[in-house]
Amino acid sequence: MTQDSWLLLASMALLALAVALWLWGTSRTPLSSASAGGPGGGHFLHKGLPPGPRGLPFLGNLLDLGQDHLPSHLTRLARRYGPVYTLTCGSSTLVVLNSSDVIKEALVRKWSDFAGRPISYTGSLVSGGGRSISLGDYSEEWRVQRRLVHQTLQRYSHSSLQALVRRQALALREVLIGYNGRAVDLAEDFTVAASNVITTLTFEKEYGKESEELQQLHSCLNNIVSLWGSPWISALDSFPLLRKLPNRPFSRLLKEVARRDDIIGRHIKEYKLRDNQSEDSITSSLLKGIEQSIGSEDGVRLTDTHLHMATVDLLIGGTETTAAWLSWTLAFLLHRPQVQTQVYEEMCGVLEGRYPQYSDRPRLPVLGAVISEVLRLRPVAPLAVPHRALRDSSIAGYFIPKDTVIIPNLFGAHHDPSVWSEPNSFRPERFLEGGGGRARDLLAFGGGARLCLGETVARTELFLFTAYLLRDFLFLPGGEGAGLPDLEGEASVVLKVKSYKVIAVPRPLETDLAVGPPNQQSGDTAL
């Protein structure tokens, strides 16, 4: 457990003792009877729910939820309790889903039962009162907002997205060439490249690595993502009494959210004041959509807060996750360098010297297999975002009461030994013909009504950035005597690889750098 978790546990134990003493002093009913929940004791609380590890009085399974690498710990619990099990934390009941079948049952086949978001004190504070697409609860207002943003993203995915990603991939190439064979950590360069795709689509702004504005924005977003995974933050939802106590991580989170809102607010204000607003920006389309929502027949009126929070979702979802995935890809390839050679030789044979386009995916199965395998091994949002049961329902035959919190453990589903042979091994060949891997068992982008809004953007970025990197460079471990990257990672809301250095060695290539016309194919996103 982390030091924060132990400190939280100590605070919770003291709080539990105080509550117990208060109950003992004010009630004639013995504490043992009061806490038993009537006939059947604690068993009555879980009647009909899946089994799970026994929790502590008052605290529930706080020790389990405070583990360092929570996705791995929840996956280990699944080996003992099965693909569906129950945890408790204070007043909250959580059901953890650990296989692709049960996740699909809840998120896809019964999506209308489980499309809600947990009622969250902290979630409301960071999402403009629940007006973000990622954290907002399921409602007609949420559906209208999501539909507007989704349609806007789809429109740009068919027009300017590919050219924009290719431009950023070529800019990244120049950065790597400029390192002249030095061992460097490329995480920040990946962040800049992914960020520029989103900021250009959104605000028509590109940044250099040294940009103070970009550094402030990503420092703020990184801090929010990191703090959001702290047990000191999540405990505030399950143990409301803790809100009365000093909480430094929570105070820091509020400061970062205020800083985020100031930065995003300035961007939107500056955009509105422009004389030459482009028709090709996401912000322009969203502003029009907000205007059109006034007086609409469905009675839903979107506001600038919806625009603000949609922008936050795009920046976090389109930057932090893509950059983390690219770092994971190189880390795994350093462990199996022959795979780099296979991808490079495939591109040389198929593309005849030119850079790839998104429409080349069917002709580059080895590259596609690498992308699928990294998505399997390290889904960058390993526990997705918790769902909430909107009504009484069932999963795998177990009764799930209304308001139960549902945690889709994508990491666990992707490491299920009943589905994946050698689940912990990096084996892209499993996704080639005859390899036994099935793309339909991948859930990296979630599913159902809460399917990742930016899936099309993400898949385009992953394919083109990876293809350009492996076409132009051979990647080697960073320096003499340098070890290979650690593959366990650091798990918070986003699963990130630990910092490592790499040497990018330019490949000998033909001089034809033609990229061809922008892809005009359909929006099919299958790898």
From TrEMBL:
Record's signal peptide: 1-20
A Pfam family hit: p450
Cofactor section: heme b; heme
Annotated heme binding sites: 452
Keyword set includes RNA-binding: no
Membrane topology, as annotated: Peripheral membrane protein
PROSITE patterns named among the record's database cross-references: CYTOCHROME_P450
Source species: Gadus morhua (Atlantic cod)
Protein name, as recorded: Steroid 21-hydroxylase
Top enzyme category: oxidoreductase
Any one GO BP annotation for this protein: progesterone metabolic process
Record gene name: LOC115545507
Location within or outside the cell: Endoplasmic reticulum membrane; Microsome membrane
Family, similarity comment: Belongs to the cytochrome P450 family.
Entry-linked InterPro entries: Cyt_P450, Cyt_P450_CS, Cyt_P450_E_grp-I, Cyt_P450_sf
EC number(s) stated in the UniProt entry for this protein: 1.14.14.16
